[in-house]
Description:
The complex is a heterodimer of chains A (about 140) and B (about 130).
Chain A: H1 5-16, H2 21-28, H3 32-40, H4 47-57, H5 61-64, H6 72-86, H7 90-99, E1 106-111, H8 117-135
Helix pairs in contact in A: 6-8
Chain B: H1 2-20, H2 28-33, H3 40-46, E1 49-54, E2 60-66, E3 72-77, H4 82-103, E4 106-107, H5 115-121, H6 123-132
Amino acid sequence: MIKPQYALRLAELRNAKGLTQQQLADLTGLTRGRLNNYEQGTREPDLVTLQSLADFFNVTTDYLLGRADNNAEFTADTITKIDHALVEDPDLLAFWLETKKRPDLQLFLKQVKSASPKAIRQMMTIIKMIEDEESGEN
Amino acid sequence: MILRLEKQRSASYKQLNQKAGITMPNYTMLYSLFEPDINIDEVLATYNIRTRVLIMDGAIHAFVWHSKKGRYYIVANECLSPCALRKVFFHEVKHILEDAPVIGYWIGIDQYRHPIEEKADLFYEIAAAYVTK
C-alpha cells in the first residue's frame, strides 16, 4: 500500500523533532493510536487536527498534505544544527555562514541515520575543499 | 523468448515507475551509464557532474553539492561496497536530474525519510528497467 503524502510528512516531521508517537500525542492532545493511524495512512486527519498539527510543526497545511515543498521552517532547523556543529571550527563556520546565503544552495544527502556534529564538520570540510579547488581554477 | 523478456522488463519498469511516482524523461545519459565500456567520468562531465570517493562518517553514504560555479559534485563514501556505491551513485544522479531543477534552496541534512529520498532509493532499479525496456 502506498501511503498518502500527509502520512509521510507527519512521520518525517515527528522524526525530525526526535519525538516518539506517544510524546507527540501528549504534546498535541491526540491519542497515540490516532497518530499511528495517520502515519500509516489508514485514517485521514480532519481539518481542525490538520491545522493544529501544522501549527505545532510550524509548517503550512499544504506542506503537511504534500501539496507544497516549501519547508522553510524545516530547513531553518537544519541550518541551526549545522551552525552549532561548526562552532568549534571558526574557519569552517565562516565559510558556511557565507555559503548558506547563496540562493541556489543545494545539498542532497544519502544518510542512514542522523548526522552527528563530527559528520557535519567532515562533510563541510569536503565542500570547502571543492569550493577552494574551483576558486583556484582559471 | 526475447520478446517475452522485453515485455517482462517493460512491465517491471511500469510497476516500479508507478510505485515511485517518478517521471522518466528520455535521458540519453542513462543509456550511457549502463554501457560496460564507457568512461563514466567523461559522460558525467558533459552534464557538469563531477565525482569524488572519499572516507566519510558512516552515517553519510554520499552527498551532492551544487558548487558556486554551478557544477554538481557527487561525493561518495569510500567505505561502501562496489554494489552499494553503484546504487548510491544512481540515487544521487536522480537528485541532480529530477529534484535539483525544481526544488530550489535545499539542505538535505537529516531529511533521509523525506519522500524525495525514498524515491531516489528506487531510481537504480527504475533506470535499469528503463534502459532495457
